[in-house]
């Protein structure tokens, strides 16, 4: 595709509900990242995939957060039993080498509001 | 632990002026320093990036200045335009960690016409 796409763009959940956020990376991008961006803050790393392998999940804030990328392309971030503090924008980025450095391409994000 | 500190939090400049945003980092293992621009409702977009083997990089109206000994880097936007009004984030990464980015807190830039 032309860029990283994410769905849904907006999600309102009741506290305790489970949610699933989808990321479609740029075709052929091996690496995929999830970040969480609280209102007025910079994005914070959640987890990283290289193909289907989850190589780093040190940023996941609790065991309620789970991510997968079973076929090495589309990824899903799942949040179980959502809490109000989970309200944030969830950004997905895919990565490839560009001349002279690394370029991470970000999707538009999914804005999650937990009531 | 905030490993990348960014200032100012907000900045207002007049059209045609110079916008300067500063960042400082703590982890000497960082070796890639990008700046991202983010408009409301959009994801961050790479603006310009630098590696520590050079002290300055210029692309059009955007320049990064890098001071390795001080562990500081800055973004200069020359001839600032109203269309530059956005939130700017500095970031840093270590290649060995698969390029996960550590972001600063962001600077909201407003360029008045």
Helices and strands of chain A: which structural class?
mainly beta
Low confidence ranges of chain A: none
**Distance N to C terminus of chain B:** 38 Å
How many strands of chain B?
Answer: 11
- Tally of separate helices of chain B: 0
Biggest interface pair, counts: A-B, 28 and 27 residues
Q: For the report, how would you describe the main beta sheet of chain B?
A: 6 strands, mixed
- Mean pLDDT value of chain A: 92
Estimate the global geometry of chain A from the Cα principal axes. globular
Shape of chain B: globular
Estimate what percentage of residues of chain A fall within beta strands. over 45%
Task: Give a quick account of the main beta sheet of chain A: strands, pairing sense, barrel closure.
Answer: 7 strands, mixed
Into which percentage range does the β-strand content of chain B fall?
over 45%
Please estimate the helix content of chain A.
Answer: under 10%
Separation of the first and last Cα atoms of chain A: 34 Å
Low-confidence stretches of chain B: none
**Number of helices in the DSSP assignment of chain A:** 0
The sequence of SSEs of chain A as H and E is: EEEEEEEEEEE
Radius of gyration of chain B: 13 Å
H-E string of chain B: EEEEEEEEEEE
Q: What integer value in Å does the Rg of chain A equal?
A: 14 Å
């Amino acid at each position: 595709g032309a860029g990283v796409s994410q769905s849904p763009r907006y999600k309102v959940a009741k506290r305790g509900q489970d949610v699933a956020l989808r990321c479609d990376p740029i075709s052929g991008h091996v690496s995929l990242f999830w970040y969480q961006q609280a209102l007025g803050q910079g994005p914070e790393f959640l987890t990283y995939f290289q193909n289907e392998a989850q190589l780093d999940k040190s940023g996941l804030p609790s065991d309620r957060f789970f991510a997968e990328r079973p076929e090495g392309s589309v990824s899903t971030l799942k949040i179980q039993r959502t809490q109000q503090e989970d309200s944030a924008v969830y950004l997905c980025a895919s990565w490839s080498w560009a001349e002279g450095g690394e370029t991470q391409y970000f999707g538009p994000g999914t804005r999650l509001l937990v009531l | 632990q905030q490993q990348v500190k960014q200032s100012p939090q907000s900045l207002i400049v007049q059209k045609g002026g110079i916008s300067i945003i500063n960042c400082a980092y703590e982890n000497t293992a960082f070796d890639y320093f990008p700046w991202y621009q983010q408009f409301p409702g959009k994801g961050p977009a790479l603006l310009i990036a630098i590696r520590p083997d050079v002290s300055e990089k210029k692309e059009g109206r955007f320049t990064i200045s890098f001071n390795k000994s001080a562990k500081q880097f800055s973004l200069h936007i020359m001839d600032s335009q109203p269309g530059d009004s956005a939130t700017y984030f500095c970031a840093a990464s270590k290649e060995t960690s698969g390029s996960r980015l550590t972001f600063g807190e962001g600077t909201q830039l407003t360029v008045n016409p």
